[in-house]
Amino acid sequence: MLDEDKRDLIEEECGIFGIVDHNEAANHTYLGLHALQHRGQEAAGIATVDEDREMYVQRRMGLVNDGFDKQVLATLPGRSAIGHVRYSTSGDSTAGNAQPITVSTKYGPIALAHNGNLTNAGELRSRLEGEGSIFGTTTDTEVIAHLVARSLADDLEGALFESLRRVEGAFSLLAITPKFTMAIRDPHGVRPLCLGHLDGSPVVASEPSSFNLIGAEFDREIEAGEGLIIDENGNERSVRPFEERKPAPCIFELVYFSRPDSNVFGRNVYEARKEMGQILARESHVESDVVIPVPDSGVPAAMGYAEETGLDYEMGLVRSHYVGRTFIEPSSKIRHFGVKLKLSPIKSKIEGKRVVVVDDSIVRGTTSRKIVAMLRETGAEEVHFRVASPQTTHSCFYGIDTPDRDALIAAHHSTEEIREQIDADSLAYLSIDGLRESVDASVDEDGRSSFCEACFTGDYPVSPQTIEEGGPASTSTRIDSPDPEKVTEPPTS
Q: Phi and psi of 2, rounded to 5°?
């Protein structure tokens, strides 16, 4: 899409998938990543370990289907594999930033795939560089690799635990080595990670939607602060390497990121979003004729809104699923060009009607304004904008690509001011209490939710001081070599 419209989106950074002791490890990882494609569409990678304990990796720019075919997958032998899909947040596209990151250490080779951001990555990176470390990427994941390489632990498992105890922020991490695969979540459990089994083989993924595609059975979520060690024969061992902290799973996973057919943090995503729409209708119903969603993320909430109010539900906007990342814009200016590439109005469902349009969030307001204008041009008599989440007032530092706070429209404008800017007849957001009700959140005696709601409330699980010192660091990636990277060099520290 056009850069102007891309800036008005909130994007997830990545999804991870792994499988141990299966004769089609690479192929199933490819399929698992395909099911996680919504979490990252700019780069994909797979690392495997074969029976001789040698490691191989292939990384590609673009969609999983575009970069991995039978020939590429054939270069990834072995019965254990991990994979990664990602978005970019900052910096240029460089080959070295692709994941899984693979390094050789004194303990042997290791590959890492990471979902989330480390809030003290900048501080740790500066310290490591001052001690002589040379970085080949700008990702915070490489910070973990350098910490592992410099560890004085007795073995690789201990080095991983020691290194992860030094980082702050969000990480759902997969690590593959010649002897074991590790799946681990940070003590707050910000990003999701779940465990399943396929023909007796352990499978780990950001979302269980991956399991549905390959026919694996969902077992459970890996808990906040839990590490799962799986040896090369598929034997599992649960460990608790961190001091216990209050869990703070990201509520925006349920609002927007996770697929509707997933269960995340013990909640069914589709049902949670539908209830968001129902509560939104109870809080802010307006006289109108039809409810339409902003597809695809606004669909369940719009259905809930229509069901609660008894209004007709219509797909008044049709989304194109064949929109790439960039376009050549015609020399003759087309009104709302970027939005029209993605959304096309159905005139018969809009013309002459009072329309309630439901979206999951408003970021900068640019896209919302264009949608309202397009509906008016199509003949809507009134346009009432409803948002199935509270105002996004703070940036995320835990793995979501939100703009700087200065660019978030709700950080500096009232709801009425935003309504005027997007030119809607009315505007209403779901309240924070309504959101909590829809996801069954609890609130402790200090008023803190059982979820991370920092993007809505500014209540960060990690202190703002740590965030400012470290800050997130992630970039887009590109590797187009047809040959796999075989990690067999002599181990180095």
A: -65, 150
